[in-house]
Amino acid sequence: MISGAHVILYSQDAEADRAFIRDVLAFPGVDAGGGWLVFKLPPAEVAVHPTDGPPQHEFHLMCDDLDSQLGEFRSKGVEITRPVSEQRWGRLTAIRLPSGAELPLYEPLHPLAHGL
């Protein structure tokens, strides 16, 4: 039986991004050995979208109140990299990780599967 999902983010500054996940996002974690941190994620969902291009994967964080979350991030000095856009399925933006990578964030307007 499947017991969970493991998401991998590839980073050009893994230590800084790990510290961001630990200190700014405040995700608890464990040392998987040798200082290799693995973090607990909030409840998750997976969706499969059609594409005409090559297959790819995306990772988005979800929140209940995007405006409040962005205010909290701004107070911690986190860069918001995209203006909030209103989509059919939710309100979308992104934040900057210390490595320079973007991490999308959205407030879903669709029914949620993670509580099933």
Automatic annotation (TrEMBL):
InterPro entries: Glyas_Bleomycin-R_OHBP_Dase (IPR029068), VOC_core (IPR037523). Residues 3-108 form the VOC domain. This is VOC domain-containing protein. It comes from Streptomyces sviceus (strain ATCC 29083 / DSM 924 / JCM 4929 / NBRC 13980 / NCIMB 11184 / NRRL 5439 / UC 5370). The lineage of its organism: Bacteria, Bacillati, Actinomycetota, Actinomycetes, Kitasatosporales.
